[in-house]
Structure formats: C-alpha cells, structure tokens
Amino acid sequence: xxxxxxxxxxxxxxxxxxxxxxxxxxxxxxxxxxxxxxxxxxxxxxxxxxxxxxxxxxxxxxxxxxxxxxxxxxxxxxxxxxxxxxxxxxxxxxxxxxxxxxxxxxxxxxxxxxxxxxxxxxxxxxxxxxxxxxxxxxxxxxxxxxxxxxxxxxxxxxxxxxxxxxxxxxxxxxxxxxxxxxxxxxxxxxxxxxxxxxxxxxxxxxxxxxxxxxxxxxxxxxxxxxxxxxxxxxxxxxxxxxxxxxxxxxxxxxxxxxxxxxx
Length: 263
Known about the structure:
Elements: H1 2-11, H2 17-22, H3 31-34, H4 40-56, H5 58-71, E1 80-84, H6 90-99, E2 107-112, H7 119-127, E3 131-136, H8 139-144, E4 155-161, H9 169-182, E5 183-191, H10 195-202, H11 211-222, H12 229-233, E6 241-248, E7 252-259
C-alpha cells in the first residue's frame, strides 16, 4: 500500500518530494483564483475548502493563536480584527464561535477582492455579538493605500488563512510591511511545504473534492512555507516584534508576530 501511494506521488503532476524538502517555493496559478464568484466550479471549490480547513484543523490552530496573540497585545476594549483574503467568511464564523464567549463586541472586517459574504453571514456574526464589515478590494491595493485613506485603518489583529502562499516574495514583503504598520498582532496559517503536506493533498479525493480543488491543493503545497521563511520577509526596523514560526498540525505552517513594545 505504502509503495503504491509513493508511486502515485512520484507520477502525479505538481511539486516533487525532493523539490519540497530541498528547494524553494514554486508558485503556479490556482484555478479558483481565475473563476468568477458565481461559477458553479468556484462555488463547489469554496465548499471543498471548508472540508479541507476541517481536515487541516485550521479553526483550532487559528483560535488558539489568536488567544495567545491578544494576550500579548494591549488590552483596550473590544477587539478589531481584519482577515485578508477572507473568502465567504465561513472559517471566520467558525473561529468567532470559538472566541465569542470571551471576546465581546468584536469588530470584524473581512477583506476579499470578491463580494462573497451575504446578509445571512452578517446575521450569523450579529447573533454572536460581533459586527461584520465586508471590505471589497484587492489586497495589494489595500497594502499600497496612502495612510490617510480609510483602507489604511488600524486593527488590533490581522489574520490570514491559506492566503500568503499566493504571492511572490517581492509582493509578500510589501504586504507584510503594510500589515506591520497597521496592527499589533498578525496571525497566519499557511500550507506547509513538506512531504506530509504533499501526501495529504494527493489524498484529498477521499473527501470527494473536485479536480479543481485537488489541483489547487497540490500547487498550494509547493507554494507553501517552512522553517523561518516568513520571519525573513517580516519588515526589519521600527518597533520590536516578537516572531514565532513553526509547524502546526500535520499539514499547516503557523506564523505569529506580536509587538514586543506593547506586551
């Protein structure tokens, strides 16, 4: 059985095991990024992503990281959170349900270039006592916005899930610099570029995901992170930041930055 799985890994399209363990990131286009929001394939892929996030344990990883990050940040009333590349908000809602018993009156901004959050999602957050604010804009436009514009507001925490791996290094540096200038804590959960991640992506058909989702999962692993790759891209200078970067769960890579001068 193990030999058959290994053979499938070697013959399948996508990053090779040797490339993952010895080489750098490899970015390839993801199908979901190119589909209109209302395309049936995109709708199915977004449903698939909910299952993928459950398998990866993303909600638990991010909820625990958010609690620790906020414990190290200034305590000054209701939390303001921004999620970048938030999609339809389904993962944010699951996280909110984990945190709502202690985090009251949270103002949550969900940034995405497509309008994917509807009235029902806003109602679901309202039932938890949270306020939802959709922000429809490309994330690099947000990053490049002059400080006097409303796009360049401040948040207590900025959050991302399975998002940073879409960007080349120069865009990542620009994005992370904007994040550092606009928050007190940053939490990112990304694909881990590893053999277990590659194996896990290849086995996703067992969950009944589409071929589009399978393709995107495989290339996501090749574009993922390991070791201290995000720490090296975090802006140097300015306030002291405490950085933590490590594997999380079997398939994920966690990066957390908190302002050391506010702890």
